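sry for the spam today, last one i promise. struct tokens for design, 514 residues
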């Protein structure tokens, strides 16, 4: 890849190579690379006129759009930090995040602006911009904002190691923290993603994940722009729109988390949809059930896994298309520029096959957490990111995720990997989803309990389900109870919120014997 480090520079470099080529297709319009570069130039001037500059924060609350991508790139031009907000959160949650960072500018789509204004989510001193609707009192409209410009020079030099992107973690295992990624980290991550997908300029990329998370933004969208691809942005995931776009636009690459794949597989169009243009589908964010992998492969499309976190860019471990079938279920090997290490509780490296914490080192790692030096020091101790995931490497260097260390259940002094138990549950055709957690127990410390979501039209027979563990796993790993639920609590990217399940179990069964 070229040496350009910021997304602003990537787009201008692509515009110089093939300016008339389509860059972005979205609900708010389509832009070729030349037009996208001009839009970035204009928005950089608008941000500068609003007082956004080196080190200041530009926050965005809205669904996927061309304007969002252009504003991100414009912010990097100025050395500002772009902060996408999770639109699925409630206003008080937005208020807490914005209070922590004191953004210079907040842009909100029409559907969110009134709630933001009425609940005063933005701190004093923030210029609030409403996009797509009449602005609330005290706000300005997007057109007025865009009309105010200070001249900026394309390719203005910025510090590649200064923060460029601020993404809050999902909060699946604790309070969300703001991870800071530099322009250098974004470029390293993009180069790893280009290598993972084998991206070339002719690829046609579909983004149906939200851009407020690194999964939607950094696995394919920004890497595709670095490579000169054409990108289709969906404001929200919709199965019919996804099928339509793949078929009509001859999409070659997309990323879909397991929850989205489940929706597509259950759709009547799945067996006959024309997927012939797809070179691959990437997936991740949680352990991927083997049934999903097999179902996608049965349609002739390689399903490659990517593993990482908000703090890692996220691309630090992946499969390539030619490895997808032979290593199905693995998270892959270290991505370009990254190193993996499996460590024990003291940080010492463990041999192949031994399960321990997965540590990561590489240029795509975050520089730290916003305003939390202590958490930064703990997460990056010794120069390695401590993922909190348990995993092991096989003899060929492929990573297998065993679960979250915090999720590990200790029953009578024995460790139980929830992923191992969940894999047995998911073998039942009656089970669509499964999550396993520990329940406090006076005798054993913890015992295993399971939450399962029935497959469409299926009935869960708990006794029969538990009988399936006989001879498969040690007795202490067998669930002591099965709870049938309509849905599992999940984060925006489909990660199961196991802490919520643990709290539910503890509240329901406190003091009861196993």
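last one done:
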């Amino acid at each position: 890849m070229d040496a350009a480090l910021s997304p602003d520079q990537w787009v201008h470099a692509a515009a110089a190579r093939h300016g008339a080529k389509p860059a972005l297709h979205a609900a708010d319009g389509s832009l070729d690379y030349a037009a996208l570069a001009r839009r970035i130039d204009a928005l950089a001037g608008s941000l500068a006129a609003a007082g956004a500059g080196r080190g200041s924060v530009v926050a965005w609350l809205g669904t996927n759009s061309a304007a969002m991508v252009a504003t991100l790139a414009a912010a990097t031009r100025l050395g500002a930090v772009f902060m996408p907000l999770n639109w699925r959160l409630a206003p008080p949650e937005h208020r807490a995040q914005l209070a922590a960072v004191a953004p210079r500018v907040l842009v909100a789509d029409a559907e969110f602006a009134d709630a933001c204004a009425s609940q005063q989510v933005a701190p004093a001193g923030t210029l609030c911009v409403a996009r797509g609707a009449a602005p609330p009192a005290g706000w300005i409209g997007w057109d007025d904002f865009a009309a105010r410009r200070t001249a900026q020079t394309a390719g203005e030099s910025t510090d590649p190691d200064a923060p460029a992107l601020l993404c809050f973690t999902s909060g699946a295992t604790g309070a969300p923290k703001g991870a800071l990624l530099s322009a250098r980290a974004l470029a390293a991550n993009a180069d790893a993603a280009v290598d993972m997908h084998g991206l070339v300029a002719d690829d046609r990329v579909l983004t149906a994940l939200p851009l407020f998370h690194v999964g939607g933004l950094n696995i394919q969208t920004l890497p595709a722009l670095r490579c000169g691809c054409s990108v289709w942005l969906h404001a929200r995931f919709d199965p019919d729109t996804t099928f339509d776009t793949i078929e009509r636009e001859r999409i070659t690459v997309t990323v879909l988390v397991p929850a989205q794949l489940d929706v597509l597989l259950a759709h009547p169009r799945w067996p006959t949809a024309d997927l012939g243009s797809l070179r691959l589908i990437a997936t991740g964010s949680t352990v991927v059930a083997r049934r999903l992998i097999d179902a996608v492969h049965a349609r002739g499309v390689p399903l490659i896994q990517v593993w990482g976190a908000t703090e890692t860019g996220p691309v630090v471990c992946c499969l390539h298309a030619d490895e997808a079938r032979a290593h199905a279920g693995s998270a892959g090997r270290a991505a370009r520029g990254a190193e993996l290490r499996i460590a024990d509780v003291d940080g010492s490296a463990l041999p192949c096959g031994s399960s321990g914490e997965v540590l990561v080192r590489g240029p795509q790692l975050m520089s730290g957490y916003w305003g939390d030096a202590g958490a930064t020091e703990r997460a990056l101790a010794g120069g390695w990111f401590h993922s909190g995931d348990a995993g092991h490497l096989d003899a060929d260097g492929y990573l297998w995720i065993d679960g979250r260390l915090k999720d590990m259940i200790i029953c009578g002094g024995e460790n139980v990997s929830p992923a191992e138990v969940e894999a047995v549950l998911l073998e039942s055709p009656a089970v669509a989803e499964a999550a396993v957690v520990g329940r406090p127990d006076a005798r054993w410390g913890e015992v295993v309990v399971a939450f399962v979501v029935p497959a469409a039209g299926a009935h869960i027979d708990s006794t029969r389900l538990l009988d399936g563990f006989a001879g498969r796993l040690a007795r202490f790993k067998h669930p002591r109870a099965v709870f049938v639920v309509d849905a599992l609590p999940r984060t925006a990217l489909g990660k199961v919120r196991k802490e919520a399940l643990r709290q539910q179990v503890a509240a329901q069964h406190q003091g009861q014997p196993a």
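The mean pLDDT is 92. ok im logging off now
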